Amino acid sequence: MSPGPWERCFWLGGLLCLSVGSSGHAPPTPQPKCTDFQNASLLWGTKLKVQFLLFVPSDPSCGHLVEESSDIQNSGFNATLGTKLIIHGFRALGTKPSWIDAFIQALLHAADSNVIAVDWVYGSTAVYFSAVDNVVKLSLQISRFLRKLLVLGVPESSIHIIGVSLGAHVGGMVGHFYKGQLGRIT
């Protein structure tokens, strides 16, 4: 939307035009912000700092940060679809896994589902034994997040956890916490 003759736009971060003036038009509605994986430093990579990034079929290239139940409900999450959680492993250099974007796209292309990438780059960086020490903490955080999904009506049987490397250990522990009632762990 371009400004009318009596209004001006003030751009915030290049994303949102706030209109000032009287043209009879309402300011544009802000679109949900896309979030990407964090980057950690080898020296600072011992804190967990978990992010849950939701990717949905209607917006497959935009990760929506979902922390609270209200975030989940307002993000395009569909409780009637299957839900896949991807958990990466150890990140020696503190960067986003190079394979994750293509994997998310492949999952969304294969079936209508909610795909949630678990970003724990901070907790998986630095020395390997520090990342291993974070496995139980991460498993508990994922279990708490899954409880929020269950409250929203997601059946346990529709949850598919996909763990890679150390993330597979995390996935197994989450499955243990749910007494084997989750749909699938890969």
TrEMBL record:
GO terms for cellular component: extracellular space. Belongs to the AB hydrolase superfamily. Lipase family. It is found in: Secreted. It comes from the Eukaryota. Residues 1-24 form the signal peptide. This is Phospholipase A1 member A. Pfam families: Lipase. It catalyses: 1-(9Z-octadecenoyl)-sn-glycero-3-phospho-L-serine + H2O = sn-glycero-3-phospho-L-serine + (9Z)-octadecenoate + H(+); 1,2-di-(9Z)-octadecenoyl-sn-glycero-3-phospho-L-serine + H2O = 2-(9Z-octadecenoyl)-sn-glycero-3-phospho-L-serine + (9Z)-octadecenoate + H(+); a 1-acyl-sn-glycero-3-phospho-L-serine + H2O = sn-glycero-3-phospho-L-serine + a fatty acid + H(+); a 1,2-diacyl-sn-glycero-3-phospho-L-serine + H2O = a 2-acyl-sn-glycero-3-phospho-L-serine + a fatty acid + H(+). GO terms for biological process: lipid catabolic process. Its EC number is 3.1.1.111. InterPro entries: AB_hydrolase_fold, Lipase, TAG_lipase. Residues 17-186 form the Lipase domain. Keywords: Disulfide bond, Glycoprotein, Hydrolase, Lipid degradation, Lipid metabolism, Secreted, Signal. One of its GO terms (molecular function) is phospholipase A1 activity. Hydrolyzes the ester bond of the acyl group attached at the sn-1 position of phosphatidylserines (phospholipase A1 activity) and 1-acyl-2-lysophosphatidylserines (lysophospholipase activity) in the pathway of phosphatidylserines acyl chain remodeling. Cleaves phosphatidylserines exposed on the outer leaflet of the plasma membrane of apoptotic cells producing 2-acyl-1-lysophosphatidylserines, which in turn enhance mast cell activation and histamine production. Its main location: secreted.
